[in-house]
Design brief:
The protein is an alpha+beta fold. It is built from six helices and four strands. It is globular and about 45 Å long. Bound molecules: heme C (HEC).
């Protein structure tokens, strides 16, 4: 049996305490809570509008919801909260709104690595204070898992009329071929500190 020496024990304790302090920090960070609250509002509103329009008008009608309402909901939340609220992806459909900047690309890539090592996509997120030309910003990203309802427009077997409607609106579309549970992209929020 290996006997723990005093310095090893002290180091282990320091690590444990650092770990606990870190966990506490995370739980107590009001910026993270605020960002999560905004993401919940964004996701709830979009998904309820999406479900209603798929049920009432089918997926082609619902494409319009994604095209018009998603940016509008994001802009509304940005105006009312002081945060910049958006969505991004390594394979964006709308490259103008959804293409990641360098920081977002790095985080999205780290999400893929974290998923590959077994972490749940449902709760995956990353927060960081980033230096920018305009000063410090608090940035937060939360992974968006691909659910059943998403497959009609982001999956591997997209129906012919839906594919045609997407081709027409998004000739550079990269957001197809996703499977259930894949990381479709992420919510990305930031605000000045
Ligand atoms: C009815 C078709 C449709 C369905 C269903 C759908 N989407 Fe989309 N999705 C779109 C369209 C269209 C866009 C582009 C929106 C735009 O122009 O900003 C988009 C964009 C996105 C984006 C922004 C990044 C990008 O690729 O441009 C994310 C993230 C996203 N969808 C996730 C999802 C998730 C998660 C679901 C399921 C909960 C889902 N979508 C269901 C059509 C759909």
């Amino acid at each position: 049996m290996k006997v723990l020496t005093r310095p090893t024990l002290a180091a282990a304790c320091a690590l444990l305490i650092a770990g606990l302090a870190h966990a506490d920090d995370k739980a107590a960070n009001p910026n993270v809570d605020e960002a999560k609250g905004l993401i919940k509002q964004f996701a709830d509103q979009l998904q309820s509008e999406l479900k209603t329009s798929i049920n009432n008008g089918g997926p082609i009608k619902a494409i319009e919801v994604c095209q018009k309402r998603a940016p509008a909901i994001a802009a509304g939340l940005s105006r009312s909260s002081g945060w910049e609220v958006g969505r991004t992806s390594l394979k964006p459909r709308n490259a103008k709104l959804g293409a990641p900047d360098d920081w977002e690309r790095g985080v999205l890539e780290s999400f893929e690595t974290r998923k590959a090592s077994g972490e749940s996509v449902e709760t995956m997120a990353h927060a960081e204070v980033v230096e920018t030309d305009q000063g410090q910003r608090f940035r937060f990203m939360k992974a968006v898992p691909t659910q059943e309802v998403c497959l009609a427009c982001h999956g591997t077997e997209i129906s012919e009329p839906v594919a045609a409607a997407l081709d027409e609106r998004y000739p550079q579309d990269q957001a197809r071929g996703f499977a259930l549970g894949d990381i479709r992209g992420a919510f990305s929020l930031s605000k000045p500190l």
